[in-house]
Design brief:
Layout lengths: L2 E3 L8 E3 L2 H24 L6 E6 L5 E5 L1 H22 L15 H34 L8 E6 L2 E7 L10 H27 L1
Antiparallel strand pairs: 1-2, 3-4, 5-6
Helix pairs in contact: 1-2, 1-3, 2-3, 3-4
Length: 197
């Protein structure tokens, strides 16, 4: 984890990780561990079917435990993809010219920005996995969810939805945090460009 090889003809450098970058990687790694462990810890405790989506009409979509595997897979996939991209910051298009003078600073800023987005993405999936488990265990919904199996179909008999673990504002907040991270990366990259050129 000490350095990243930057192949290619665009100012290839070996840039060692800073203490801040190592801390960011550790936070992302803890998130990945949680994404993997949580479904296994609660797999036997969750029902085979549970509500995953509540449509505008109030209709409940039921999913199986496979949705936990899907969330885990997407979270790990994002981690791997963003880790790979962060290893080669010279392969990502920049908003300004990268010169031998500013390459190290620019690549370091780019790598940190990508890794911060990785942390945000991984922890988003930690939260979504945890929330899905809570819904499956009927802790995110009001008083109680009683399921009856009548004529081979699943019906929600008593379903009082009192307090959501996340509401309509959740997704815009997540996107806003990521946009702020990207804007910070652009700001610091532009500032470094001005200092070096």
């Amino acid at each position: 984890m000490g350095t990243s090889q930057i192949p290619g003809d665009r100012h290839a450098l070996q840039i060692p990780y800073t203490k801040r970058e190592i801390k960011v990687e550790i936070v992302a790694g803890i998130g990945v561990v949680l994404i993997v462990i949580m479904p296994f810890l609660w797999w036997g405790k969750t029902p085979d079917l549970f509500p995953t989506n509540f449509g505008m009409s109030g209709k409940v979509d039921w999913e199986g435990k496979g949705s936990l595997v899907l969330l885990t897979g997407i979270g790990i996939g994002l981690y791997v993809l963003l880790t790979y991209i962060s290893r080669f910051p010279n392969m990502v298009n920049h908003l300004w010219v990268i010169t031998p003078i500013n390459a190290e600073k620019q690549y370091r800023i780019r790598r940190l920005t990508i890794n911060c987005i990785k942390v945000e993405s991984v922890w988003l999936f930690v939260y979504l996995t945890w929330n899905t488990i809570q819904v499956a265990m009927s802790k995110a919904i009001g008083e109680e969810m009683k399921l009856l199996n009548q004529k081979n179909s699943m019906h929600a008999v008593a379903f009082v939805y009192k307090e959501a673990l996340f509401g309509i504002e959740f997704l815009p907040i997540v996107f806003l945090v990521m946009v702020v991270t990207i804007c910070a990366g652009v700001y610091y990259g532009n500032k470094a460009k001005q200092l070096s050129g």
